[in-house]
Amino acid sequence: MKLISALIIVCLTTLSLTAQTQKVTFESVQQTLAKGKQYTLAIMKKGPKPEPSDPNVKGKMLMDHLVRLFTLKEEGKLVVFGPVTKEGDYQGIAIFNLTDETEVRKLLEADPFIHDGNLVYELMPWFSIPGFTLPE
């Protein structure tokens, strides 16, 4: 149900932005939705192990984490990623351009924060329209 709600919000937001430049019709919505595809959404949460207290160790892990994410983006495997900026259990999201959860798990397990137990993740199938982008 949450997935459907999220999809509706994404579609409505996009349609409202699209409506500024063209008239949205039932047919145009159907055509846009027909271009949709499945992705995999990863939601990262705090893990059982706290992050390293040594700033040098944490800094190296963070750079390794970011290099890995940017590399996956360059390879076309990762669509978008980023941290959650509110303090709490949720730490970040990543949307993979992959539907094979085994492959996504393998990629995530190589992340230094996940490998070390500082982060855990939950995966779920996610639907969107290729070409939808975040505004600059």
Q: Layout of SSEs?
A:
Layout: H1 2-19, H2 26-34, E1 37-46, H3 55-74, E2 78-83, E3 90-96, H4 101-109, H5 112-115, E4 119-128
Antiparallel strand pairs: 1-3, 1-4, 2-3
Distance between the termini: 30 Å
Give the oligomeric state of the chains in this entry, treating copies of one chain as homo and distinct chains as hetero: single chain
Question: Helix share of residues?
Answer: 40-55%
What is the string of SSEs from the N terminus onward? HHEHEEHHE
Strand share of the residues?
Answer: 15-25%
Mean pLDDT: 89
Radius of gyration: 17 Å
Number of strands: 4
The first-level CATH class of the largest domain is given as Alpha Beta
What spatial form do the alpha-carbon principal axes imply?
elongated
Low-confidence stretches: none
CATH superfamily of the largest domain: Dimeric alpha+beta barrel
Could you please describe the fold and organization of this structure?
The chain has a four-stranded antiparallel sheet with strand order 2-3-1-4, sandwiched between helices. It has two domains: 1-35, no CATH class; 37-128, Dimeric alpha+beta barrel (Alpha-Beta Plaits), CATH 3.30.70.1060. The two termini are 30 Å apart. With 136 residues, the chain is of the alpha+beta class. It has helices at residues 2-19, 26-34, 55-74, 101-109, 112-115; strands at residues 37-46, 78-83, 90-96, 119-128.
